Amino acid sequence: MTEHIKIEQQDGVLEIIFARPDKKNALTNDMYRAARAALESARHDKSIRAVLIGAEGNAFTAGNDLGDFANVSSGKGGEPQAGPFIQTIGQFEKPIVAAVPGIAVGVGTTMLLHCDLVYVADTAKLSAPFVNLALVPEAASSMLMPARIGYVKAFAAFALGESISGPEAVALGLANKALPLDEVLPAARSAAQTLAKKPAGALVATKKLMRDAETILARMKQESAIFGERLKSDEAREAFSAFAERRQPDFTKFTS
After folding, report:
1. Average pLDDT of every residue of the chain
2. Domain 5-181: which CATH number of 1.10.287.3240, 3.40.30.10, 3.10.350.10, 3.90.226.10
């Protein structure tokens, strides 16, 4: 476990809070493991009727810790834990509410596609710049994002790294409400508590009807295979080296 994930349970709601604000809540392998373990426990705990995912500070998450990615790319790291976490959240049957206080990068944005209610700060910025890191989208977002916001907007997010503001996220259907920062977590908590009082069986059945879990999992597996290949590519090594050296990467020396 890790001190960078805080778990609390009250009145039928399990809260999973990213607690690494000094690093903009960048997710490490240990954080993924802890969050996944909490979700797995909640799946089988009948007293938990809804889950809330939030964060300390003014960032939701800056995405995967690039140090972990760089280690895998160079052959020094262990197996990335983002994939197992993503699969768990993608198959989670109980309702999930997200509270997004600020930036949400990469998996910070794509995991929202698996949350049932999303509340964002009006100053939030959502982005999924996978191509900038010589990677590909994950969390079935290559399928879910175009379906949600349209192909050209999704491609601009993935390939150009264009961000989406809090109000724009609402307009595009990525979030329910954009609120002042100090109202985001209370709104999400209120929604989660409301869901916890609803008929649990009806909620689970409704969510299953609204999401094709088999198709989502199949796309996740397809993305994961390509993501793993890309993570060990020369382009990815250049991207991570450039980040560490605080310079612009040069991808022109590589062919497709």
Report:
1. 94
2. 3.90.226.10
